[in-house]
From TrEMBL, chain A:
GO terms for cellular component: glucosidase II complex. Keywords: Glycosidase, Hydrolase. It comes from the Eukaryota. This is Integrator complex subunit 5-like.
TrEMBL record, chain B:
GO terms for molecular function: calcium ion binding. This is Glucosidase 2 subunit beta. The keyword Phosphoprotein applies. Regulatory subunit of glucosidase II that cleaves sequentially the 2 innermost alpha-1,3-linked glucose residues from the Glc(2)Man(9)GlcNAc(2) oligosaccharide precursor of immature glycoproteins. Required for efficient PKD1/Polycystin-1 biogenesis and trafficking to the plasma membrane of the primary cilia. One of its GO terms (cellular component) is glucosidase II complex. It comes from Sinocyclocheilus rhinocerous. Residues 341-442 form the MRH domain. Residues 150-220, 298-325 form a coiled coil.
Length: 904, 456
């Protein structure tokens, strides 16, 4: 929802205090630059050059699954242990830790879904200079060079990726204060603004560099409010990964935001690779490129002269503590990288169908009466929605799991009212707990000793919405189990099965803490907050989602939205891009922000429609609805201080525009649902950059003002004020795209100018695809459950098309536990459209049927026959010659049946 | 796939109590029945195409305007008619047919969804008639009250206008008197002025000394006069007998006003009386007439002039106040006049809200704390056809990082004049509901109230 303007004072006061923020922008002074973060400054001072590390080849040990080898730092004689694994699915894992650390160093648990299965490594050759290992297929080798230590992954004669090639491996070993050879600032204590980090363990940071020859485009490492393609960081700050509650964040810079996923993708026309740096401490990522400074002319000159050095991107990761644990995902296709990463950290959770509908949120819907009247407003204006949301004011004194007795005296009555309309609600549950001896949750956490501790071992306390608050230690499995149990219907009073949860402020946000978060020397058991910071938010959502599943006896799918996240968070629900603003640039940035998240596993992403802070102009609001309707998580939200902005408050014309685009969203729910299922099964992103599907088309590599939904819909939202037209790039030489509104056909591999009005949202369907829709839009997704499908068959130039249809009950886990779903393949070839079963041993019955088939780019048949159960029956049809659209009228077969439609 | 009934037999209970059967396709209102002739080709109501009759309500949308599917959810823009016998007929979007939610009280929208709907039309009809009846009664009584209000306002207005006319007449006389006294004063001052010019400084000092002394003497005298019970203290009640001290000149000197004059003290002694004296000396009328023996003739002329000038100013103020009141838009028949200078309060769990029509709206925490201005009178801002249904109060106390507070007051007909609810739909934008007989419309004839079957 929100963050605090005045971190040094309790936020409840800041709303009325005189410390008014004069400018609308982040107060950068509240957040560290690399220079103000002692380890980053120290590490960054290290320049590329000869590495002091040497591999001790005589220590090499090779087992079936791993190779170990000691490294020595010749400057201080500290020994490190290198572990190399060849992982199934074309991945390599590189771990480096101290051979004999003074104390154990933190290794991040609970992110990998299992210990990654390995494949045998074999030594191809070995001499004094190094070792050559086989990585199995495709002539891939891993070369360990001894002096200086360096790793190269090669395929044939080509180097794919090198480690420590610039000599920036730096591993600060644990030491005693008395043994510190020189007294340097920030080693054993560090102060930022009024906060002192006591750093009892001294310097513990780690760093490693990676070189990517042939690579000019790198992506990922969210969350940053920046372009899709990552920029070089020379001369500026590195990209920072440190989950922070940033008040009124600014765009186009590398500052840290609410979540961190330390995964970077590297792409060129030949190959896509990924680097997953598994570390939960504060992390900085430097990117440099040998071509970044060159002009197009310079590059061309190199090319003509043939003297070009190969383009190369160099990346350097720096983390404050823990160990080096890197997964190198070798692709080679984009989809391979997605499945490789999914095999490590899991896939997007499969959400309940309703959560793909429209969500209406505001800080705050004031009381039950307000909720009721907003609900009625949707019906009065015939606009569908599935979820209405309650922010922090719903709870009694910000005591989560409770209801304000005056504003929400009868929560069950309210929830029942929504249930009668087949709609749902989300109420916020934040992880800061009001310190109040009259509050059950606080008392139980206290008595079970589940709070995070400060450096002196007492319960850590900080300021947040309720005032003085404690922070449950979500890193403890027992704590998470207890938290989950609080969602049981008999524990969470006033809750019902249509009440779901929103976890905000889980960075965690501490208004009076350093950088508005927790002190790094706070303690989670034996680990410092420093070690675990970036994973705290993941644990909150994990425990919440688990609680929701448990309350239903393991039958129902959870739905939990989180603001903070880490690698693996995709397994627990949806994320949103936090507290944006009602500005055109914020609308624009929602696209690269969600695309970046999709690339690293988090498909269920959205931005606050309308913008959280400030009041949007009507035009901006309409444009934001049009954009949001085509992004995975579709929720309007607004700050407490903004004027009301329910969709019907801007005059009948604008109400109609918003209604229209929300209806488009609902008609496409079968496609969205199928894509989420695919993401859940394979790790393929739902909202994708164009290059994912057109990896050889360099024109797509930097596009982030348009995107694909799955492979088959291309969306170019209008994000400019007063726009009269947009230029969309339609990829794919030899392919065609159909305007979904007019069915007009356009050729691929062109920049297409599209004139727009306020009602336009340019969307194209790929020729060669079949998209199922439910064109009977009703007031909520549940109301549409049994409705018939219309199939939109968009033919390729070769008169071919294929698609899928996925159906289940929309809310339970039975698809997984009992195989209760329908999954069909739809193929149009040789003038026949066929539905065949992709899961013959599945069982699910639907009453939905096929009411209509539209074939775009068709020619007029003389006759259309439905072949089903051995019988042939004629089907009525119409043909629109102007757009070449063939409409088959009411073929009527059950959506789960085998059938063929023959065009003669 | 679903199987649908093309025709539906509708059974009505008409007012005579005789059942009548009328056949027409499901979802079609009686008025449109002629367009749906069984076994004849059907032409979409927008005329766009003609289809065989068996395609009407066959759960596939053929007409762009949705008219071929009045009884199914097939058309995105269709509407379904429910007769709701016993209540009122209505149209619902056809997307609500068989969506599992009971929309029509006669349950006809959920004929194939498995939703368990009960026919509630009769109850709704009764309830509605009950509500309408009550409303009608309220309207009737309210309207009578309104007539009184209009009458009173008319009288009040005439009185005030008369008063203003009288006052303006008096004012004229006063103005003449002031002019006359000015001449007297100036003549009388002439010798003094000359002397003053000669001994300006000495004169000023002397004058000040005299004034101070006189003032002190006057004060002592006044104290003794005021201290009726001779207890050495002047109390609130003792001071209150001097109506001329009324600070707002409204004719009554209230206890609060006296307390104000006394600086909040319940009584004062001679030493503390000095500060009270500064507050009252200009208006204070001595209880015994005294000769100001030592008053120079110039001083006398000056005082006379000043007194009359003051009286003129006061009269001007009074005229202005009445004219201000008369200038307000109190409605087409001045029916809102009675709200002027009144205040109405509503206490919620946290706050006391106060509406002073044509003046301001405010909010005060129930358990202590300062008052917040939620807006001062702005304008009537109801819909075009009747702007007198909504009042707007603007430019209240500013919000942190937000706009100035404002309040919209919605007026509804009621016998009583009360604030019935307040809310804050958006931050710092308040909404108040207020009932008053002043907005009650002339009641329609009771016989015209709906009885549930107007369609037949």
């Amino acid at each position: 929802r929100k963050s605090c303007a005045v971190p040094s004072s309790p936020c409840s006061c800041s709303w009325t205090s005189s410390s008014v923020l004069l400018t609308f922008a982040v107060d950068r002074g509240n957040f560290k630059t690399c220079d103000q973060s002692a380890f980053c400054k120290r590490q960054r001072a290290l320049k590329p050059g000869q590495s002091p590390y040497r591999a001790l080849l005589e220590t090499l040990e090779l087992s079936d699954s791993r190779l170990t080898l000691q490294l020595i730092n010749d400057n201080n004689k500290v020994h490190l242990l290198l572990e190399l694994y060849r992982l199934q699915g074309n991945m390599t894992r590189v771990k480096i830790n101290e051979l004999k650390p003074l104390r154990p160093r933190f290794e991040v648990p609970d992110v990998l879904i299992a210990e990654p299965p390995t494949e045998p490594l074999s030594v191809l050759s070995k001499d004094d200079n190094g070792v050559v290992l086989s990585l199995g297929a495709k002539n891939q080798r891993l070369i360990v060079s001894a002096r200086p230590f360096r790793l190269d992954i090669m395929q044939g004669p080509e180097v794919l990726l090198s480690l420590n090639s610039r000599g920036l491996l730096a591993f600060e070993h644990l030491r005693l204060h008395k043994d510190t050879d020189k007294e340097e600032d920030g080693l054993w204590e560090e102060t930022f603004k009024s906060h002192t980090d006591t750093k009892p363990n001294g310097p513990t940071s780690i760093s490693l560099d990676f070189s990517l020859p042939g690579v000019e485009h790198v992506y990922g490492i969210p969350e940053h409010a920046d372009d899709l393609k990552l920029k070089t960081t020379d001369g500026g700050d590195p990209y920072r990964l440190y989950n922070l509650d940033v008040f009124q964040y600014e765009l186009y810079n590398p500052m840290a935001l609410y979540g961190s996923i330390p995964v970077m993708l590297a792409h060129n026309t030949q190959r896509t690779m990924g680097i997953f740096w598994l570390n939960a401490a504060e992390t900085w990522v430097d990117i440099s490129s040998n071509t970044a400074g060159k002009t197009v002319f310079g590059k061309m000159l190199d090319f003509v002269q043939g003297s070009s050095e190969k383009p190369q991107t160099d990346v350097r990761w720096i983390s404050e503590s823990g160990i080096i644990d890197v997964f190198i995902m070798l692709g080679p296709k984009p989809s391979d990288v997605f499945s490789q990463y999914a095999s490590l950290t899991g896939t997007q959770s499969f959400p309940p169908l309703a959560s793909l509908g429209y969500h209406q949120c505001r800080w705050n819907y004031n009381d039950q009466e307000d909720v009721k009247s907003v609900d009625q407003g949707f019906d009065q204006h015939d606009i569908p929605y599935d979820f209405i949301w309650l922010d922090i004011e719903h709870a009694d004194g910000k005591r989560y799991f409770t209801w304000d007795p005056h504003k929400f005296p009868q929560p069950k009555e309210m929830l029942q009212g929504l249930m009668d309309k087949r709609r749902k609600m989300v109420a916020i549950v934040d992880p800061h707990i009001r310190v109040d001896s009259g509050y059950k949750i606080h008392n139980e956490i206290t008595s079970k000793d589940f709070y995070v501790k400060n450096k002196d071992g007492r319960n850590y306390e900080g300021w947040c919405w309720p005032g003085n608050s404690g922070y449950p230690d979500f890193t403890k499995p027992e704590m998470r189990a207890w938290w989950s149990s609080m969602f049981a219907y008999d524990q969470y009073e006033g809750s019902m099965e249509n009440l779901f949860t929103w976890n905000d402020m889980n960075e965690p946000s501490v208004f009076n803490g350093p950088e508005v978060t927790m002190h790094k020397d706070a303690l989670h058991g034996k680990w410092e907050h420093r070690d675990i910071h970036n994973i705290y938010g993941l644990y909150v959502q994990m425990a919440t989602a688990e609680g929701q599943t448990q309350r239903s006896g393991g039958v129902e799918r959870p739905f939990v939205l989180t603001r903070a996240f880490f690698a693996g968070s995709q397994r627990y629900g949806a994320v949103w891009t936090g507290d944006n603003a009602a500005e055109w640039d914020h609308l624009k940035i929602s696209i690269p922000m969600c695309l970046s998240l999709g690339l690293v596993g988090v498909s269920f992403c959205g931005a606050d429609v309308g913008g959280f802070f400030k009041n949007p102009s009507t035009e901006l609001l309409v444009r934001w609805y049009q954009t949001g309707a085509y992004q995975p998580f579709f929720r309007a939200h607004a700050h407490l201080d903004t004027t009301r902005r329910e969709p019907w408050l801007f005059g009948p014309e604008n109400t109609a525009l918003i209604r229209e685009v929300i209806r488009q969203r609902y008609a496409l729910l079968p496609y969205w649902y199928q894509l989420l299922y695919q993401a859940h099964k394979t790790g393929m992103p739902v909202m994708r950059p164009l290059w994912v599907d057109y990896p050889k088309d360099t024109a797509t590599f930097t596009i982030d003002d348009e995107f694909l939904i799955g492979s088959d819909l291309l969306v170019h939202p209008v994000t400019e004020e007063g726009s009269r037209g947009v230029t969309a790039y339609l990829p794919g030489a030899g392919e065609v795209w159909y305007d979904v509104h007019t069915f007009q056909k356009h050729n691929g591999a062109q920049n297409l100018y599209i004139p727009v009005t306020l009602s336009s949202i340019p969307v194209f369907q790929r020729g060669g695809s079949i998209i199922p829709r439910k064109d009977r839009v009703r007031r909520s997704s549940a109301c549409m459950e049994n409705d018939p499908y219309t199939l939109y068959v968009a033919l390729s130039p070769k008169k071919f098309a294929e698609g899928e249809l996925y159906i289940d009950d929309g809310h339970s886990l039975n698809y997984d536990t009992k195989k209760e779903f329908i999954h069909r393949s739809l193929t149009f070839a040789n003038n026949a459209l066929t539905s065949s079963n992709l899961c013959p041993d599945c069982n699910f019955l639907t009453s939905s049927w096929i009411e209509k088939v539209l074939i775009l780019g068709a020619s007029k048949p003389s006759k259309v026959l439905l072949k089903m159960d051995g019988k042939e029956t004629p089907v009525d049809f119409e043909f629109d010659t102007s757009m070449s659209v063939l409409t088959l009228r009411k073929p009527g077969m059950n959506a789960g049946a085998d059938w063929t439609l023959l065009l003669q | 796939m679903t199987c649908l009934h093309l025709l539906l037999t509708l059974v009505f209970a008409v007012s005579l109590g005789t059942p009548v059967e009328i056949q027409r396709p499901r979802g079609v209102p009686l008025t449109k029945k002629p367009f749906y002739e069984e076994n004849k080709p059907f032409t979409c109501l927008d005329g766009s195409r003609t289809i065989p009759f068996d395609r009407v309500n066959d759960d596939y949308c053929d007409c762009k305007d949705g008219s071929d599917e009045p009884g199914t959810a097939a058309c995105p823009n269709g509407s379904f008619h429910c007769t709701n016998a016993g209540y009122r007929p209505m149209f619902i979007p056809s997307s609500r047919i068989n969506d599992g939610i009971c929309d029509c009280c006669d349950t006809t929208d959920e004929y194939n969804s498995g939703a368990k709907c009960e026919n509630t039309c009769k109850e709704l009809g009764l309830k509605e008639r009950d509500v309408l009846q009550k409303m009608a009664e309220i309207t009737k009584e309210g309207f009578l009250l309104k007539q009184q209000l209009i009458e009173e306002a008319k009288k009040g207005r005439e009185e005030k206008q008369g008063k203003v006319t009288d006052m303006q007449e008096n004012k004229k006389q006063l103005e003449e008197k002031v002019e006359a006294l000015r001449t007297v004063k100036e003549t009388a001052e002439q010798p003094e002025k000359e002397a003053k010019e000669r001994h300006l400084k000495a004169w000023e000092e002397q004058k000040a000394a005299i004034r101070l002394e006189k003032d002190k003497a006057k004060m002592a005298e006044a104290f003794l006069e005021l201290d009726d019970n001779a207890d050495g203290f002047v109390s609130v009640s003792e001071l209150q007998s001097h109506a001329e001290l009324d600070p707002d000149a409204d004719g009554t000197l209230t206890e609060t006003e006296v307390q104000g004059l006394m600086g909040g003290a319940a009584q004062v002694d001679t030493s503390t009386f000095e500060s009270v004296w500064t507050n009252i000396k200009d208006k204070y009328h001595s209880e015994v007439s005294r000769e100001e023996a030592d008053m120079s003739s110039a001083q006398k002329a000056r005082d006379d002039f000043e007194d009359s000038e003051k009286a003129l100013r006061e009269m001007d103020d009074q005229i202005r106040n009445i004219e201000k009141e008369l200038s307000f838009d109190f409605g087409p028949d001045a029916e809102f006049t009675y709200l002027y200078s009144q205040c109405y309060e509503l206490t919620t769990s946290e706050y006391i809200y106060r509406l002073c029509p044509f003046n301001r709206v405010s909010q005060k925490p129930k358990y202590g704390g300062s008052e917040t201005n939620l807006g001062t009178w702005g304008s009537w801002s109801g819909p075009e056809n009747n702007k007198y249904l909504v009042m707007k109060y603007e430019h209240g106390t500013g919000c942190w990082q937000g706009p100035n507070r404002s309040t919209t007051v919605k007026l509804t007909c009621g016998k009583e004049t009360v604030v019935t609810s307040t809310s804050e739909p958006s931050r710092c934008e308040y909404l108040m509901e207020f009932t008053t007989p002043a907005v009650c419309q002339e009641p329609a004839n009771m016989d015209l109230l709906p009885h549930g079957h107007e369609e037949l």
